[in-house]
Write a structure and sequence with these properties.
Layout: H1 2-24, E1 34-41, E2 44-49, E3 55-58, E4 61-69, E5 72-86, E6 90-112, E7 115-136, E8 139-144, E9 148-163, E10 166-178, E11 187-199
Antiparallel strand pairs: 1-4, 1-11, 2-3, 2-11, 4-5, 5-6, 6-7, 7-8, 7-9, 9-10, 10-11
Length: 200
Amino acid sequence: MRVFIFLALLISSSVSWAQESRARMPRVAPEVPSYLTLNLINPEMRYERANSQEIEDVKPLNFSFGYQKKRLSFLAEYARYSEDSGNATSNIERTHQELLVWGRYHLINKVKNELSGAVYGGVGLGGYQEEVKTTLMGDSRSDKENIKMMSGLSVGTEGAYQLQNFGFVVGIEGRALIASDFDPNPVWSVVIRLGVRFAL
């Protein structure tokens, strides 16, 4: 009989100790997911100096994709646009294309259920290339420059609606694009991003 009482006390003490140990264990915070973002619709407006010396807006074709983990995100962006001046006899067409990689830090990052919002600042670095096609009396000649370095600063805000592993993203961003040949320097730009993102 004493043996059974001893075993009962031993089991009771073990269960009590296990419960206390679990209570003392720190709670593990849920892991923050990382996201892959694809932006296919990115209307952009830039302000450059035209041949007439007036500031005019250009609208590049813009694509980008990015990766975000906690407060840090990276974005690779390709942009291209063309502009021409002259007439049917004499014409000059300039084509500009660039590739930038942005690093961004999310200063404010709020999440509530499926909705999230962020305010961020970023720094970009990359290169650009321009090609000038001159047409005179039906004869044309193309001159392509070497790739040149450019950089940028950005500040923006974005919001997302997440459905498990898939979601939608919308954002607006203001940028200052800097390069030695830009006129004005920096070139001011505003871009709106519409895309989708996937939880990894």
